[in-house]
Amino acid sequence: xxxxxxxxxxxxxxxxxxxxxxxxxxxxxxxxxxxxxxxxxxxxxxxxxxxxxxxxxxxxxxxxxxxxxxxxxxxxxxxxxxxxxxxxxxxxxxxxxxxxxxxxxxxxxxxxxxxxxxxxxxxxxxxxxxxxxxxxxxxxxxxxxxxxxxxxxxxxxxxxx
Length: 161
What we know:
Blueprint: H1 3-48, H2 53-79, H3 84-100, H4 102-126, H5 128-134, E1 137-140, E2 145-148, E3 154-157
Antiparallel strand pairs: 1-2, 2-3
Helix pairs in contact: 1-2, 3-4
């Protein structure tokens, strides 16, 4: 095979697949940028709502991974790879991993609950001197804590910050 035939084949492959590969790369890069933007947006919204930092990081990373997976599948589809079987494999793998990590995820959720409880208790103990001086006593509820003083002013706090 001479070089002119080889170059002709290379040019033919580049014209057929070059634009598809370039479009797939653009989809991946733009998709990664969008996924990072959504992760920042989710983190900012959750931080503004005073959500526990452990949950903020977990949900932000989960959002990033889900969106990035979507854009990778879109880029593979742009190249010409059949993505229906790939999506079925991802679904089956997600189910298998979810069932395998069921206990670990329950432990993670329990750990987050313990961290929230400990941070609320540390807030309460740090305020103990203040309560003794002002004679205001806390009322602790699962989702928020309310602090009342003798003047019947109630302040509700949904996070330990």
